[in-house]
Design brief:
With about 150 residues, the chain is mostly helical. The chain is about 45% helix and about 5% strand. It starts with a helix and ends with a strand.
């Protein structure tokens, strides 16, 4: 039979990042609290829920095509890092620089200027790095389907 004290509280399980678990231990030590429950109760008592503003970034689901090798690599890392493929792709996108590396940008400028210079030349006179040569290939395009969630 349940006692009167157990009716006043109920267990609540939730997932926390390790950084917050470490903070709970630090608060317990500094404030001399006996349990993690005491820390959570204190945090709830002191937090201004009325004045807080939650930032929810809107999400959209996209569909992209990646190579079989990339898919296998990301799946392998997801398993080894105890993560999901989506989480690793989000991390990769967050760390992607908007601007290309300087060396790539300069080589692209050289290709474009070479293409412009070779535009009036016959194909046999074009340099191997120009878009007119057989060895130069354009990058493949990726189609995206965007769906609001």
């Amino acid at each position: 039979m349940a006692t009167a004290s157990s009716k006043n509280s109920a267990p609540h399980t939730f997932d926390l990042p390790l950084s917050l678990i470490a903070k709970i231990h630090a608060v317990r030590k500094v404030r001399r609290l006996k349990t993690a429950t005491a820390v959570v109760r204190l945090a709830i008592e002191e937090f201004d829920f009325e004045g807080c503003v939650l930032l929810h970034e809107p999400h959209r689901q996209i569909s992209v095509r990646i190579t079989a090798a990339q898919r296998a690599m990301v799946k392998r890392y997801a398993q080894s890092k105890d993560s999901s493929v989506g989480e690793l792709v989000r991390l990769a996108l967050e760390n992607l620089s908007v601007r290309p590396a300087r060396s790539r940008a300069r080589s692209r400028l050289r290709r474009v200027s070479s293409h412009r210079a070779n535009a009036n030349m016959p194909l046999s006179a074009a340099s191997p790095a120009s878009p007119c040569s057989d060895t130069w290939r354009s990058s493949t395009s990726v189609s995206l389907r965007v769906r609001n969630t």
